[in-house]
Amino acid sequence: MIRGRHDRLRELLNKVRVEQQTSLDELARYFRVSTATIRRDVKRLEEENKVVQTVGGGVIYQTEHTGAVDPGRIGRRVEEKIRIAEHCTELIRDHDDVLIGPGTTTFLAGKIISGIEDRRFRIITSSLELALEASVAPNIRTVVLGGEVWNKYVVGPEVGCGYFQDCHRQHTMILSADGIHATQGVTVFESRLVPLIEAMVNVSDRIVLAADSTKFGKSCFNRIARFDQISFAVTDREVPWEYVECLEEHGIDVRLV
After folding, report:
1. CATH architecture classification, 5-61
2. Where are the domains of the chain?
3. How far apart are CA 113 and CA 136, in angstroms?
4. pLDDT tens digits, the chain, 257 residues: what are they?
5. 71-256 sits in which CATH class?
């Protein structure tokens, strides 16, 4: 699964960042290498003050400002979602204004993006957790949108009203979905999120659709974007091939990870 130590170190750090706490044995199983190999990798990250190894073989992310991601919140296909989230970091440019839409995959992407150190950019989010995480990074400016708080997100028809009225229209948006359908486009189930997502879409000139393959072929009640509004689609390799062709026919750059 992992082709070299450099890639494994990067993905190992991202996995610990997302889970906040894991173990040497679990990491060895995940990366399909020996416990001794993982122990050396963790030691390297520990020397860089990025993780802490406990006496009992636990591995903890070195942070003062976030808690662990609830595994139930991530849902199914965790490995695929982490790979998708990691690839989204490659699409962030220096001095980008990055809108992080609501959703589990976008939340993971935001957490991993907050670990980027070689670019300066701004994150605009309605996630209170993500805002706290990104706000401590010296190279990231963080904007949290105002409105009513629901399920750790800021929502409501007036959410971010001041920001979206005054901002430019050249944002990069990380967009998630509950359903992606050939005729219905990109859809979500929760109606309370629609005004926020639509406002984000309207001010974005680069939209990255980040969704695992189980979302394709499904349609929910609320359409939030058309295919011709999407610039990139990042998904796993189990996506039905007819959807890869459909997205590419609309000029979307499809990334399979």
Report:
1. Orthogonal Bundle (1.10)
2. 5-61, 71-256
3. 13
4. 445 788 889 889 888 888 878 899 999 999 999 998 999 999 899 888 788 777 668 787 865 444 445 555 555 677 888 899 999 999 999 999 999 999 989 998 998 999 898 999 999 999 998 998 888 889 999 999 988 888 788 887 777 778 998 899 999 999 999 999 999 999 999 999 999 999 999 999 999 999 999 999 999 999 999 999 999 999 999 999 999 999 999 999 999 99
5. alpha beta
pTM, rounded to two decimals:
0.78
